[in-house]
Amino acid sequence: MPVPRRRHCPSRRDRRRQHTKLTPIAGIVTCAKCEAPRLPHEICPSCGEYKGRIYKRVKAEKAAN
Fold first, then answer.
1. What DSSP letter does each residue of 42-62 carry, written as one string?
2. Dihedral through CA 47, CA 52, CA 54, CA 60, nearest 10?
3. Which secondary structure element, helix H or strand E, spans residue 17, and what is its range?
4. Distance in angstroms (rounded) separating the CA atoms of residues 59 and 56
């Protein structure tokens, strides 16, 4: 199995690895109805609405006694 003659310097190693990083989430938007944060193109977890239509029924919070 071939072995490199010399080690690569740290700068060359780091230039090679500069693209192997994690990227942040595309962005967080607010729901038009309840103003809760949600991911784009996803159903709102707090009200269950997407593009003006209700796709998921969410249990209403209990009134405080």
1. S--TTT-EETTEE-S--PPPP
2. 30
3. helix 10-17
4. 10
Cβ-count burial of 58 within 10 angstroms (0-12 exposed, 13-18 middle, 19+ buried)? middle
| 56 touches 33 (CB < 8 A) | no
Structure tokens at 23: 């990227």
pTM value? 0.49
C-alpha span between 65 and 19 (Å, rounded): 54
* Domain boundaries along the sequence of the chain: 25-65
Q: Which of 63, 29, 13, 53 is nearest to 4 (CA)?
A: 13
Q: Is the pLDDT of residue 48 over 60?
A: yes
pLDDT tens, residue by residue, 4-36: 888 889 999 999 998 888 887 778 899 988 999
